[in-house]
Amino acid sequence: MTQESKDEGATGLPASEEQSTTVTNKGASASAFQTATKSVEKGKSSKTVKSDDGDDAKKPANLTPDQFNRLLSLNPALKKEVESMEPAKVQDMMKTLSLADVLAGASVSAKNKKDMASYKFWQTQPVPSFDEAKSIIEDGPMQEADIDKVPKEPRQMYPGFEWVVMDLTNSDELNEVYELLSNHYVEDDEAMFRFNYSPSFLTWALKAPGWRKDWHIGVRASKSRKLVAFISAIPVELRVRKNLLKSSEVNFLCVHKKLRDKRLTPVLIAEITRRCNLVGVFQAIYTAGVLLPTPVSTCRYFHRSLNWEKLYEVGFSPLPPGSTKQRQILKFKLPTTTATHGLRPMTKKDVPAVLDLLKRYLERFALAQVFTKEEVEHWLLHDPKRIPEQVVWSYVVEDPSTHKISDFFSFYRLESAALASKKHQMVRAAYLFYYATETAFSSPHDKGALKKRLNELVKDAMILAKKENFDVLNALTLLDNPLFLEEQKFGAGDGQLHFYLYNYRAAPIPGGMNAKNQPDEKHMGGVGIVML
Question: How far apart are alpha carbons 143 and 133 in whole angstroms?
Fold first, then answer.
C-alpha cells in the first residue's frame, strides 16, 4: 500500500493504532530517526557502512525543547517511548537528531499522529530501534533463520473471532475483501478521500506469480461470519545493494473500525510472519505513511494535475493565492498527441526486451526487485481474460529501423472515493509505475541526456493518462523521478512513504530527497522498487 497525499493537504492512514498499512507491498533518503544497528552475531567485527545519502542530511538539527516537544506531538507513540527514557538520553537525542530525521518524521499535516501497532510491539520484532547508534555494520539479517522453531499453528484468536484463509479465486470472498478495504482502509485526515481498491486491482496485486492462498489471511466474527480484518503477502526477490533476499511483500493490512481497540494489528503481523517463515521466507519489505522503527528510506509524494478543475472541486488541489481557475487550467493543459516516435502499447512479444531493459535499469539502484519474465508479464500487461477491468497501462518505444525496444513506461490505476464531494464520486488517479530507457547507459554517462529523455517520456505518459480520463498522475521521489518532477509541473504533496525491511539491517538508502525535503538529483540511486 502507499499513502496517498493531496496537493498541500495529504490523505493518509485511518486513525488509531490499528492501521491499514503495507507490511512487507508497492509502493529514499535518510528517513525519520534513521539509525544504525549493531551486529547480530556476537563477536563479529563492526564494519562501518556510510549512508548512500549526502552528509548534509546528517547535520544535527539542534532542536530546542519546544521544537522537540512539537516533533513528539506529531508522533504520539514515539512520545510514549521517550517518556520512558532517562532524561540524559532524551537530551542526547535532541542534540543528535539530523535535519533529515526531523523532516521525514514530522509531516505538516500531523499525519504521524497515527501509529501502526505500537512501539512496544515493534521492540519485540527484528527491526532496528530508534535509539541504536548512528553507525551501522554491514547489511545483513538481524536474526538467524531456523524453520524448525517456527510454530506450526497460529496463536489462538480472541474469543468471538476466528482465523480464515480468503479464497480470492472465489468472487464472493474477493468482494468481501473489497468491501472491507472500501469501508475501513486508508482514509485522509479530514475524511475527504479513501482508496478504492477494486476487485480487479486486488486480483492484480495479490495474485502475482508464486502467490500463495494461505498468505491471504482473514479474521471473521464467529457468529455473523463477517470479515473484520485482513492481511496479505506476495513473494518477491529483493536486492539490497549486492545482497539477494528471498522475501515477502506484505500489504492491505486492514481492521474494521469498530474493532481497533482489540489490538488485532500485532496479531495479524505476527501471523503473516509465521506463515512466511514456515516456507523459509524470513525477510520482508513493507511501507507505511506513519513512522515506525525504523525506516531504511523515505520518499515524498508528488502530484501532477491532469484535470485540475475536478481536483479543485473535490478539495484535492487548492486555488493558489493570486491565481484564477482559468490560469490553473491553462497551466496544466497538455498536448492532445504524443511526441515520441515509435511509441506504442506494450504487447506480450515485448516482454523479453522489456525484462532485459528493466533489469539493467534497476541495477543502478540500491533497493530493487529482481524481476522474472512471468512477473514482467503479470505486472505490466493487461490480461482481460484474467482481470476484467484494466488496472495497468504500459507503452514501449520501438526503433522503426532496428525494431529494438529503447524505452518503456507504465502507470496503474487506483481510484479514491471523494467522500465529501456531492458532484464527483471518484478521483481517477494514475500512479507512475516502472520505466526504463537505454539513454541511462550512454558512455560516458550523460545525466543531461537522461533528464531530457525522461521528461519526454513522462510528458507522453501524462498525455496518454489524460486520454484514459485520469484526473491526476502521482509519483514518489524514487527511481530517477527527481529528474522530471519540477519540469513536468508535479506539485509537492505533504505525504511521505517510509520503506521498511523486516529482519534485515541495512545502511540508510537515499529516497531522492535532500535535507530540505525537496527532490534532489544528488540523492537518487537509492529506492528502485515501486510499491502499490
Answer: 19
- With a cut of 50, say whether residue 149 has pLDDT above it: yes
Which candidate, 210, 195, 206, places its Cα nearest to that of 230?
A: 206
From CA 38, how far away is CA 267, in angstroms rounded?
A: 27
**Under 8 Å CB-to-CB from 208, ≥6 apart: which residues?**
234, 235, 236, 375, 378, 379
Q: What percentage of the chain has pLDDT greater than the value 90? A: 63
For domain 299-523, the CATH superfamily is Gcn5-related N-acetyltransferase (GNAT) (3.40.630.30)
Q: Which member of 71, 202, 476, 532 is catalytic? A: 532
Residues 6+ apart with CB under 8 A from 16: 114, 260, 261
Across residues 144-153, what is the average pLDDT? 92
Sorted by sequence, the CB contacts under 8 Å of residue 28 that are 6+ apart come out as 297, 298, 299, 300, 476, 477, 478, 497, 499, 509, 510, 511, 512, 513, 526, 527
Cα gap 230→250, rounded to integer Å: 11
Query: Tell me, what's the pLDDT at 321?
Result: 93
Crossing angle of helices 199-206/171-184, nearest 10°? 100
Domain assignments of the chain as residue spans, ordered by start: 299-523
Cis peptide before 141 (omega within 30 of 0): no
Higher per-residue confidence, 494 vs 434: 434
Comparison of pLDDT for 265 and 1, the residue scoring more: 265
For this structure, is 532 an active site residue?
A: yes
Average pLDDT, the chain: 83
Say if CB 526 and CB 297 are below 8 A apart: yes
Q: Which residues of 8-25 are buried (b: 16+ CB within 10 A; e: fewer)?
A: bbbbbbbeebbbbbbbbb
3-state SS class at 408: strand
Rounded CA-CA distance 347/394 in Å is 9
Please give the share of the chain, as a percent, with pLDDT higher than 70: 77
Among the residue ranges 72-76, 193-197, 303-307, 460-464, the one predicted with the least confidence is 72-76
253 Cβ contact partners less than 8 Å away, ≥ 6 residues apart: 1, 19, 20, 21, 22, 23, 116, 230, 231, 265, 268, 269
